Amino acid sequence: MPKVTYIGNYAYRKVPGTKEVWIRREVKEVSQEWLDTYRTAICTNPEVFVVEGDAKTTPGVGITVDEGNDGLPDSGWTKKDITGWLKEKGVTVTGYATKAKLLDKVKTTLNPPAPEPVVEEVVSEPVAEEVVEETIKEDTIVKTDGVEE
């Protein structure tokens, strides 16, 4: 069972979903279902609440639910878990990335694009021209005076 301790600035605080109050530094044992219901109010304030024994996640991160139980990141995963999975696969994640961009990287990692064929430019070699030597012989012109013999 998870335990929640109120460590805020005030002497007491109202417990979400009930009429009870938390007294500062008093540890309350809560059910996992209650913690899941009020996770946003409790786990996003680490300077106000200390949560111990949470079976699903660490404070402030959120819940990862694997849709299909296949071990592959999907929309049920948190950004932190998707980033961790990508880093395990050797994919570098730099800068700010939305959950949608991370899921696109997961798709690219699982189904890498086919490598583009390397096209080499064919350069035609110059064709050697065949040199034909012609020898011009002088024609001999025989002049006749037009009388046949």
Task: Walk me through what this model shows.
This protein is α+β, with helices and mostly antiparallel strands. Helix content is 22%, strand content 11%. Among the domains are: 3-52; 64-111. It contains 4 helices and 5 strands; from the N terminus they run E-E-E-E-H-H-E-H-H. The strands form 2 sheets. Strands 4-1-5 form a 3-stranded antiparallel beta sheet, with no helix packed on it. A hairpin with a 6-residue loop joins strand 2 and strand 3 (21-23). 9% of the residues are buried.
The ordered string of helix (H) and strand (E) elements is EEEEHHEHH
Instruction: Sum up the overall morphology in one term.
Output: rod-shaped
Largest sheet, strands/sense/barrel: 3 strands, antiparallel
Which stretches of 5+ consecutive residues score pLDDT under 50?
none
- Compute the separation of the termini in Å: 141 Å
Provide the β-strand percentage band: 5-15%
Total beta-strand segments:
5
Overall pLDDT metric: 77
How is the largest sheet built, in terms of strand order?
Answer: 4-1-5
Structural class: alpha+beta
Portion of residues within helices: 10-25%
- Estimated radius of gyration: 42 Å
Q: Tally the helices.
A: 4
List the helices and strands and how they pair.
Elements: E1 3-6, E2 12-14, E3 21-23, E4 27-29, H1 32-37, H2 39-43, E5 49-52, H3 79-88, H4 99-110
Antiparallel strand pairs: 1-4, 1-5, 2-3
Descriptive keywords:
149 residues, alpha+beta, 3-stranded antiparallel β-sheet, two-stranded antiparallel ribbon, 4 helices
